[in-house]
Specification:
The structure holds two protein chains of two kinds. Chain A is of the alpha+beta class. Chain A is built from 16 helices and 15 strands. Chain A is 41% helix and 22% strand. Chain B is 37% helix and 25% strand. The chains are: A alpha+beta, B alpha+beta.
């Protein structure tokens, strides 16, 4: 049996398993088969998760008879960090790739003005790796590593001087900033990595700035700053799909088409689509991403959790089409987007606030904020009426239910009546579920 | 632009620390290497052999270190690694300057400097492509500068452990003049508001204040040790834990499961499959001050979930549903 190495190449492996343990939280290896995860995979991935999620901090177990249930434990009234970010620190690399990466960094760090030519870099590496390179040339590997480091922006090739330069040291990048400005940037990074999405690179930046601040004797500040904030009701699983989000975002920003590998609802078979990336919708409350794509004149919404892979194609599209579609996407209550303006349905809602538990202004303001372009008429001190256009009745219902008895759907139009009937039936069904027959 | 990158792996972080430690101290012991690997959860025999060049096959070793004598390893290239950032980190930093909240922490001058930062691969992500939905946007962009001024005094006081004098105006208009120590800055995604958790020196209690409603903030020279306050805060949280968790049964359909688990993802919870009922059981632990929010989330999920216990929460849901149905029977 090969020795266990926690680092991996395929992000999807850890992504899928983390979703099971973190999001669906706490299933035994026997129950995990419900999610098409075999027992052996379960054991191996759980071991991997233990490494990256810091077992003593976030991973715990519960017992249910003979079953052991792993679960991620976090208390957002105490913790700040998103434990799932750690899965982004799990990528493997070959020993040679690793060695060359560090040696190039060391060579440039010790060179005058942090510059060195390809030949200088090669000579120093060959000299340092005498026994490793005595029988085998590694020129092409060195060149490939230089190219990779250039692509991520760590080094830059200066054509005139024909040298590589270490371009992105924190000291050089932020040389025009005072230490107080850097501290404020660090505080803002701590805030935004917990409140603004997407944010995985922000977690990388937090570490880079932290190293620099620690090097400059700011241990006390870093320690205190990390205990300063407290973020509540922030879902953390959005991070699992961020790898895809960045790729989709890059494609849409640069006007390039994408190829998407997607599992349609209720099917286990993966389908491939070539499409124009239009927009990314983030469901803040539920922590879910949706990709809005244009596929042969049809707008489709793909939940990111069902997307396996995205490839950016060379084929381009005219970004002016955004103007045409973005307005319609913004008008929609959620992610269901009709092709034309005629795809909207009018509904009428009456809000009645006659109990002491909810304030009239609080509910009115929430409706104003959350229903864009709604027509609102104040009827009395405890009642107001809302007229609103919807693209999909179904996706509106959870929002309506969260107001419980404080809202009634009116019989104002065919669609409004339909919604009214559906909501009544649903309330009745809930009562039946509780054993209370109406 | 890959964000799942080996450069950011914990193994690379461990190696960077090994190199910098060896450079600083003129070498590193085998034990020292092992301790750093352990610190980064990389203490696996395969990785240790790789770093210490113990594999018989040369291509499995790193050769970053060489054996100086029996106890010491030195660097093959005697140089440290300075902290650096990759392009995507800088692009992200530029991206957050478009957030309505950027002025909470940064002055215009700093924001301008960030915008001018040079990125090697000159690519810009279009922030307009991202569209957040299903949330309440309470704080307006034009209010942020004013909130930022107050927040900076609070942060300063919290970091320096100094007390502040302040006036607080509640939502109902009551005014309080107080002296207290800011303990935490809270951001609630649910209501898009910033709060300061302040420990009052006179009443020895915690107050959760909306930052916008704090006025006449003034930093005092009084310094405090927060160990005692932190203990009190822990006690307060312990006392606020609901006596029993809420047990929900969730229908065994992918959509119902996904919505239920997403909605309660930020709560401490556990789950199991009830084979005989073909349902999933979700146990949610919560604080008493969150009860209204938990009830609203249960209603949001509708017919897909049923509260099994506690009886009081179960009855509360039934009562709210009955009231909702009664509304439809009323002539409005």
């Amino acid at each position: 049996m090969p020795e266990f190495n926690p680092f991996i190449n395929d992000f999807n492996k850890l992504r899928n398993f983390s979703r099971l343990v973190y999001l669906y939280g706490c299933y035994s290896r026997e129950d995990a088969e419900l999610f098409q995860i075999g027992k052996r995979t379960f054991d191996e991935e759980l071991r991997r998760m233990r490494v990256f999620l810091k077992e003593d901090e976030y991973l715990s177990v519960e017992r249910d008879g003979k079953k052991v249930l792993p679960c991620v434990v976090e208390d957002f009234f105490k913790e700040v960090e998103n434990p799932l970010i750690n899965i982004y620190f799990s990528k493997t690399s070959t020993p040679l790739q690793t060695t060359l990466f560090f040696m190039i960094l060391q060579i440039l760090n010790s060179s005058k003005d942090k510059k060195a030519s390809t030949n200088e870099i090669m000579d120093k590496i060959y000299f340092a790796l005498d026994e490793r390179t005595k029988d085998k040339a590694i020129d092409s590997s060195i060149k490939r590593t230089l190219k990779e480091m250039q692509n991520v922006g760590i080094i830059k090739f200066l054509r005139k001087e024909k040298v590589y330069v270490l371009s992105n040291t924190i000291e050089k990048l932020f040389s025009g900033f005072s230490i107080d400005e850097l501290k404020n940037i660090y505080l803002s990074v701590l805030f935004f990595i917990n409140t603004n999405v997407p944010n995985v690179p922000g977690w990388f930046l937090k570490e880079s700035l932290e190293k620099y601040l620690l090097k400059n004797g700011e241990e006390e500040f870093v320690k205190e700053a990390n205990q300063l904030f407290w973020f509540t009701y922030v879902p953390h699983h959005y991070v699992l799909d961020e790898e895809l989000v960045w790729r989709f975002w890059q494609a849409a920003s640069s006007g390039r088409k994408t190829k998407v590998w997607y599992y349609p609802r209720g099917k286990n078979e993966c389908k491939e689509y070539i499409c124009i990336p239009l927009r990314i919708i983030y469901d803040v409350k539920l922590g879910r991403w949706y990709f809005i794509v244009l596929n042969e004149k049809e707008i489709n919404t793909l939940p990111a959790s069902r997307v396996r892979k995205i490839e950016i194609l060379d084929e381009t599209f005219d970004k002016n089409i955004f103007k045409e579609y973005w307005k319609v996407i913004e008008k929609c209550f959620f992610v269901s987007v009709p092709l034309r303006k005629t795809g909207f349905k009018k509904v009428k809602l009456r809000f009645i606030l006659d109990d002491k538990e909810a304030s009239f202004n609080f509910v009115l303001n929430r409706v104003k904020r959350e229903l864009k372009d709604a027509k609102i008429d104040i009827v009395s001190q405890n009642e107001f009426v809302v007229e609103y256009e919807l693209s999909n009745l179904k996706e509106f219902k959870p929002w309506l239910r969260s107001f419980s008895h404080r809202v009634v759907v009116e019989d104002a139009s065919e669609d409004s009546s339909k919604l009214r009937q559906e909501i009544i039936e649903e309330w009745k069904e809930i009562l039946r579920n509780y054993g209370d027959i109406q | 632009m890959e964000i799942f990158s080996n450069i950011k792996s914990t193994f690379y972080k461990a190696l960077e620390e090994i190199i910098n430690t060896a450079y600083k101290n003129g070498g590193i012991t085998r034990r020292g290497v092992q301790e750093i690997l352990q610190k980064y959860n990389c203490n696996f025999p395969s990785l240790e052999r790789r770093v210490l060049d113990k594999n018989e096959e040369e291509n499995k070793n790193l050769y970053l270190l060489k054996r100086e004598d029996d106890s010491l390893l030195t660097l093959r290239i005697d140089a440290p690694i300075e902290p650096y950032a990759i392009d995507i980190e800088l692009l992200w930093l530029k991206f957050i300057t478009s957030s309505r909240y950027v002025h909470l922490f940064l002055e215009d001058e700093t924001i301008e400097k960030i915008k001018k930062l040079k990125v090697n691969n000159n690519f810009l992500f279009d922030p307009g492509i991202l569209l957040p939905k299903n949330y309440s946007k309470v704080v307006k962009r034009e209010w942020v500068k004013e909130i930022g001024k107050k927040l900076r005094i609070l942060i300063h006081a919290a970091l320096e452990k100094k007390a502040i004098n302040y006036t607080y105006i509640t939502r109902s208009g009551h005014q309080f003049k107080e002296t207290g120590i800011p303990v935490k800055i809270q951001y609630s995604l649910k209501d898009d508001l910033l709060y300061a958790i302040i420990y009052s020196i006179s009443s020895h209690s915690f107050a959760k204040c909306v930052v916008q409603n704090l006025h006449d903030l003034e930093l005092t020279s009084k310094k405090f040790t927060v160990t005692e306050i932190s203990k009190k805060y822990e006690e307060f949280l312990k006392k606020s834990q609901a006596p029993e968790p809420i047990i929900l049964e969730v229908m065994n359909t992918r959509n119902a499961l996904e919505r239920a688990f997403c909605l309660f993802s930020s709560f401490k919870k556990s789950a199991r499959f009830l084979r005989e009922k073909n349902k999933h059981q979700l146990t949610i632990y919560y604080y008493t001050f969150e009860e209204a929010e938990v009830l609203s989330r249960i209603l949001y999920l509708g017919k897909d979930v049923v509260v099994i216990s506690p009886e009081r929460i179960r009855n509360e849901i039934i009562s709210r549903v009955k009231k909702a149905l009664e509304r439809y029977e009323e002539k409005v």
